User: What shape does this take?
Amino acid sequence: MSDHRIPPVISLIFAALILSGCGPESDSTAQIISDTQSESSIPSISNYTIEDFMSSTAYRGASFSHDNAKILVSNNSSGIYNVYAVNTDGSGETQLTDSTTNAMVAISYFPDDERFLFTADQGGNELNHLYLQGPNGSVVDLTPGENLKASFSGWAGDNQSFYVQTNERDPRFFDVYEYSLSEGYPREMFFLNEEGFFPSSISDNGQYISLLKAITTNDTNLYVQDLSNGERTEITPHTGNVSSSPSAFSPDNLYFYYTTDEGSEYQHLMRHDLANGDKETVVEMDWDIYYGVFSREGNYLVVAANVEARTQLLMYDANTLEPLDAPGIDNVNVTSVQFSHGDTEVALYGSGSRFPSDLFVKSISSNEQARRLTQSLNANIDSEHLVDADVVRFSSYDGVEVPGVLYVPHSASADNKAAAMVWVHGGPGGQTRASYNPLIQFLVNHGYVVYGINNRGSSGYGKTFYAMDDQRHGEADLGDVVASKQMLIDTGVVDPERIGIIGGSYGGYMVVAALAFEPDAFEVGVDIFGVTNWLRTLENIPPWWEAQKVALYTEMGDPATDRERLERISPLFHAENIVKPMIVLQGANDPRVLQIESDEMVAAVRRNDVHVDYHVYPDEGHGFRNKENEINGYRAIREFLDRYL
Assistant: This one.
């Protein structure tokens, strides 16, 4: 796809730290267990260490070199993310950066040579800078300065310049600069952002920029600004709650594409005629459309849909919008594509719940098989010893149908009942997704059933379901989490007396909320970088969240006016209720969940004479970036569960 960045999903206030995978949907829990037990024909299942699982390699990013001979990626094989060049003929890869401290994330090759862009923060503090590395290994910080955050915003249509967002002028808002490729990379202000917009896609001719304005997490406005005359057009005038998101400008600069749920439960792809304002629906499904973006040369339109917690890709002729066969790989869930120069090949990421994402290359014009460029799963792990996940729905406490993904160990049976963990995603508007997860597979490999619940408030199931937990966090959604216990018991393979809860970020909040507000529901809790005091969290949001602060306060509550309710749903103020053991993982540099939150929570629970394992990582922020820390954290989680569950 083109190198214009897809806009962030502003509804995900706290990043989902850990996401689970799922397989084909099953009709019932009983059928799942029946299918699972039929797999017990496998003669023996090896139990792998966390080192085995973490010796797999995580890949991300894909940018073709100017000659299509290499693809720029990041992977964490060195223990932390570094930048690599993967040869498209399958002959191997070359490491291009050698950081041992901060994660280096690949962005893009230059269009005509070996230079490339990458980004990094400092110890997980989320203050990313944009860097340029030359063929000789020299590195230039394109966004120098203290306490600023910057990101790449795409190449100009003529490939003679590129765009960068930075909040250096005003820490609250992101301006857009255009950087020239001439010596020294001089820049000019491209878009001055003084009104709290989220700048997004830019037309190939540099005339138009799309802007998102957040009202609430369920209500957004889109604008297109004509930079030649300063005229700004509202694309999505509406009444009531309508959520819209910018996608891309057409290669001919005539249309603006965006997703919206106006008049529908689900996001659909629309296009707006920039000349006369006419609108038409391009793609509509009974699932959310993530985005529609164009190939590098503008020949193809690729659309991604969120179908049953998995990504489904669709492809169209960019000029006629006639459907085409999207690039695919047998028995692999393709999650993203990136086009080569000339639109002749695509780089594909594909995964399954038994193996991590791998990088493939496939020709657009021929039917030959895709070339697999990476083997991310540790060769010492037999994927047949891992498990697929099945989508399972249950009726919650008030009759609302709640979906999720269920992992059942090969060893679990009616005669050998297993302990289980309810896995709560981040967000709050996140989703348990169809992707490989080493911690889930590690736990399942050692005998734990895991259910990744998509409680009310999760994305992917329509806007009504998504809004069901607004101003009811820690109450309406927590009820779903507790109700999922009965579904697990009904499988017949879960011990009713050994069910715990685990989650990261907002999911970590749900863990501690469950222990505080439903103290008898779960036997243990695993809190990974979780919120415990909403007053402090909301009063200390990073300055670059200013453009979405009102939306955040509308969903969660304003600490100035909703103090009583925020105290009511904050576990720190109810720690005396917690009677079950817990483990807490915290990053010292976390800008979202400050370490003091976990410090105070742990101290309060220990005053109850309740056991708490507490692990603080001095070089992490909101989530793991260092593989050694991740190994130590996940090992500690399993040791805790083995002891207390």
User: Anything to note?
Assistant: Residues 70 and 87 are 4 Å apart (CA to CA).
